[in-house]
Automatic annotation (TrEMBL):
Name under which the protein is recorded: CDP-glucose 4,6-dehydratase
One Pfam family, short name: GDP_Man_Dehyd
Sequence intervals crossing the membrane: none
Domain NAD(P)-binding: 15-326
Organism: Nitrobacter vulgaris
Domain of life: Bacteria
């Protein structure tokens, strides 16, 4: 199993859109751990953000919207970045039903604008566009989807991410195909978990809020099966992909980074593990199905054989370990431990495996 090349990242300038989001904050922490300098670009919208609790070394940021092309272009060009990670998105399926237009605008045209801004950035070597496992047309197959399987989407969020994949492919083949152009690719991960995610309508953040308040978790769709993985696993894959793109060792434009097939779990199994790991009488119950319940896939997994074979990437933590660590993070944070200490603890443990 190949590891992240610390020598590659030391001193690199890395532009991260969506740096204030859950994955963005963990990514900036991981980059700091590797000795890179991260430059964030994103909106400060939520009251509670992991990003605000972190003490990030070598980090600067710009407040802005990826739909504002002039501001985005100025920030990216001014950063003199070597690498771009595009994470900014409207990431919640249920929220996409409330604001489908905004979801498509941010997830599709925001991606196009990032790639357009990247055309003006002279120092770039690689661009990683982060999408989702939900880009695939879901046939409820027992096996995982591979990179060449058909894209689709039965809800605005999934469709917007699939459309972002197509838009990226078009932009890459049209404007990033030259010998001197930066290499670009999309990265598709599973259901990413870890401490510090405070978003609504996500199972483990909902669980942490409920249990901390002395309430049971009400879990939706307990029989739905998903590829659960700790946030550090796909982030490590994104870094390894960026290394390969920058070194011009691959021209492939889409990659899956998911857990092993046997690690897929139902919502019920995840809830059982989480409350057991939390302890102290934590409990959960199935939320009643409403008559107007929105579409939710019953089974969705992805096959990451390509990343294993060509990048040397493998998940370092099994799904059950990821769930236990996530429960410990939220429990210890609720008990008063600082978020930056907890994030650094997980990063340090991750590289001991």
């Amino acid at each position: 199993m190949r590891l992240i090349d610390r020598g590659f990242w030391k001193g690199k300038r890395v532009f991260v859109t969506g740096h204030m989001g859950f994955k963005g904050a963990w990514l900036c922490s991981l980059l700091a751990h590797m000795g890179a300098e991260s430059i964030g670009f994103g909106r400060d919208e939520r009251e509670r953000l992991l990003y605000r609790e972190l003490n990030l070394a070598g980090h600067s940021h710009h407040l802005g919207d990826v739909n504002d092309l002039p501001a985005l272009t100025a920030a990216l060009s001014g950063s003199r970045a070597d690498i771009v990670f595009h994470l900014a998105a409207q990431p919640i399926v249920l929220a996409s039903y409330v604001d489908p237009v905004g979801t498509f605008e941010t997830n599709v045209m925001g991606t196009v604008r990032v790639l357009e801004a990247a055309r003006q950035a002279l120092d770039l070597k690689a661009i990683v566009v982060v999408t989702s496992d939900k880009v695939y047309r879901n046939n409820e197959w027992a096996w995982g989807y591979r990179e060449h399987d058909a894209l689709g989407g039965a809800d605005p969020y999934s469709a917007s991410k699939a459309a972002a994949e197509i838009a990226t492919e078009a932009m890459v083949s049209s404007f990033f195909a030259g010998d001197s152009a930066p290499r670009a690719a999309t990265a598709r991960a599973g259901n990413v978990i870890g401490g510090g995610d405070w978003a609504e309508y996500r199972l483990l953040p909902d669980a942490a809020r409920a249990i901390s308040a002395g309430q049971p978790l009400f879990a939706r769709h307990p029989r739905s099966m998903r590829p659960w993985q700790h946030v550090l696993d796909p982030l490590a894959g994104y870094l390894m992909l960026a290394e390969s793109l920058a070194g011009r060792r691959t021209a492939r434009t889409s990659w899956n980074f998911g857990p092993a097939q046997e690690d897929a779990m139902t919502v019920q199994e995840v809830a059982d593990l989480f409350v057991a790991a939390w302890g102290g009488g934590a409990a959960w119950t199935a939320a009643p199905e409403s008559a107007d319940a929105k579409h939710e896939a019953g089974k969705l997994t992805i096959d990451s054989s390509l990343a294993r074979r060509e990048l040397g990437w493998h998940p370092r933590w099994r799904s059950d370990e990821a769930i236990r660590r996530t429960a410990a993070w939220y429990r210890d944070h609720a008990a008063g431990m600082h978020a930056s200490v907890l994030v650094e603890r997980d990063i340090s443990d991750f590289f001991k495996v």
